[in-house]
Design a protein that fits this description.
Strand order of the largest sheet: 15-16-17-14-13-19-20
Largest sheet: 7 strands, mixed
Number of domains: 2
Bound molecules: nicotinamide-adenine-dinucleotide
CATH class of the largest domain: Alpha Beta
Helix content: 25-40%
CATH architecture of the largest domain: 3-Layer(aba) Sandwich
Oligomer: single chain
Number of strands: 23
Length: 499
């Protein structure tokens, strides 16, 4: 594996933010600051408020008053459409600044960060379109002297809590439908990647959303996040993050019977049959596990290979893995950046050791900090593949969230399906085959919210396709019409005629 970099190019300037409440930058009542350190250099790159519950309450109050006052929640569809289109245009206009900021905070190579920005613009365009097409039903056939109507109304104040791996795209999956529906919003972004959410709040305000429609408050999940979840003034929580925190949010939302949508973890099976296009499937397995240093909820972290092709397939995948160039994500020759923080680094190291003690065969990679010349503080993990994994091992059952792949073999379709479904998760899966019957039988049989055939990580390319998890991968759907429905209440109006 090549690990040299020409010269560190990561920025050294420190960004500093205050909370964004009611259209203004507001110093935190808590008076405390959090410093985010670069995963590449270890230097401070961002300072944000480490807010307390009173700060969260101020943001919630602003969103509540704005919603109840009605100039956004009752605005015309054309107004919301117009704002959403302008947001998409502004995101495109600021693409390089947004991508550079993502690159510095997430640590993902710059070109891929640009891809995240472009997908984000598409999400706002898509929901701009849907905002114009919200309509209820009329029900006339049950009572000749009555008419029934259903109308969609915005759910209210939405609390949005987001993770650090795709901070701009994943927040847009929530903000765009919430705005299209007429909701007001309080976002608590991850403290590791806060800047692009602040930048988006400015864009949204400049695009014409009234003050108080979008509010951002940063701080600790158990303090600020939980305040959003527990507040009786918040009507819905839209969360993306770990299954453990998702469970806690569900419990904390119960007393107020808050609406919740949860996008959680995964342990996705990527299944390759012998008739697959081998080069395409190797590419899919590579992209499936290594995108964003493996820190992807839908990573293809369980590679299920038919026993007849395992050796050849694995040989090609190992060769491709050797070509990975770890380094400064700003350097255009880098293909994999660091992982997000020390905690995640240690967690991945722990799993690499667990795989070895469980008896899996490590065929490339290993534990320990991967040294990159000139970036000794960088949190670089060696891309690692375990062969001879069985589905009972922790490395096959638990989400590692790093560039660590577990390879499992199968004999036939039935066994592949049994292994694929033997998981507490059900977020995504992929099937590689040229046989239509095999593809469709697997796609129907796998209990997951998304199944790709002869592709990996296509989600987000089509914002009209709903996305979400079966089982412990989540509740609800984002994107598509279903994603918009999450931000509406449905009211039935019964009209008695002739009285
Ligand atoms: P996390 O669950 O640790 O944190 C997510 C967010 O929740 C952060 O903003 C955090 O501050 C906040 N939070 C933490 N504790 C909280 C609490 N008690 N109450 C309210 N909020 C709280 O997740 P992460 O480490 O930021 O992200 C990685 C996880 O996200 C992985 O498990 C991954 O699978 C999941 N994820 C899922 C999807 C999806 O679409 N299904 C997408 C991306 C990431």
């Amino acid at each position: 594996m090549t690990t040299e970099v020409s010269k560190p190019q990561i920025a050294t300037a420190v960004r500093s933010y205050q909370n964004f409440i009611n259209g203004k930058w507001v110093a935190p009542i808590s008076d405390q600051i959090y410093e985010r350190k670069s995963p590449v250099t270890g230097q401070t790159i961002v300072q944000i408020p480490w807010s307390n519950q009173a700060d969260a309450d101020a943001a919630i109050q602003a969103a509540r008053q704005t919603f109840d006052q009605g100039n956004w929640s009752k605005s015309l569809a054309y107004t919301r459409h117009d704002v959403l289109r302008k947001i998409a245009q502004a995101v495109r206009a600021k693409a390089s600044e947004l991508a550079q900021t993502l690159c510095e905070e997430v640590g993902r190579p710059l070109a891929m960060c640009l891809g995240e920005v472009q997908l984000t613009a598409t999400v706002f365009d898509y929901f701009a379109g849907l905002a114009l097409d919200v309509k209820g039903e009329s029900i006339t056939q049950y009572d000749s002297s009555a008419i029934g109507l259903t109308v969609h109304e915005p759910v209210g104040v939405v609390g949005i809590i987001t993770p650090w791996n795709f901070p701009l795209l994943l927040v847009s999956w929530k903000i765009a439908p919430a705005l299209a529906a007429g909701c007001t919003i309080v976002v608590k972004p991850s403290e590791f990647t806060p800047s692009t959410t602040f930048m988006l709040a400015e864009i949204i305000t400049q695009a014409g959303a009234p003050e108080g429609v979008i509010n951002i408050v940063t701080g600790d999940g158990p303090v600020v996040g939980e305040r959003l979840v527990e507040s009786p003034l918040v009507d819905k929580i839209a969360f993306t993050g770990s299954t453990a925190v998702g469970r806690r949010i569900m419990a904390k939302a119960a007393p107020t019977l808050k609406r919740i949508s949860l996008e959680l973890g995964g342990k996705s099976p990527n299944i390759v049959f012998p008739d697959a296009d081998m080069a395409a499937a190797v590419g899919g397995a590579f992209f499936g596990i290594y995108l964003n240093s493996g820190q992807v909820c839908q990573a293809g972290s369980r590679l299920l290979l038919h026993e007849s092709i395992k050796d050849e397939f694995l040989g090609q995948l190992i060769a491709a893995t050797k070509s990975i160039k770890l380094g400064d994500p700003m350097d255009s020759t880098t293909t994999m950046g660091p992982v997000i923080n020390e905690r995640q680094f240690d967690r991945i190291q722990g799993y690499i050791q667990t795989g070895q003690t469980e008896g899996a065969k490590m065929v490339i990679g290993g534990s320990g900090r991967c040294s990159v010349e000139g970036l000794e503080q960088g949190l670089f993990v060696q891309p690692t593949i375990f062969d001879a994994v069985n589905n009972e091992m922790a490395i096959a059952r638990e989400e590692i969230f790093g560039p660590v792949l577990s390879v499992i073999t199968f004999k036939d379709e039935a066994e592949a399906l049994q292994i694929a479904n033997d998981s507490t998760y059900g977020l995504t899966a992929a099937v590689w085959t040229k046989n239509l019957d095999t593809a469709l039988l697997m796609a129907k049989g796998i209990r997951a919210g998304t199944v790709w055939v002869n592709a990996y990580h296509s989600t987000g390319l089509e914002p009209c396709m709903p996305y979400g998890g079966y089982k412990q991968s989540g509740i609800g759907r984002e994107l598509g019409h279903k994603g918009l429905e999450e931000y509406f209440e449905t009211k039935s109006i019964h009209i008695k005629l002739g009285s």
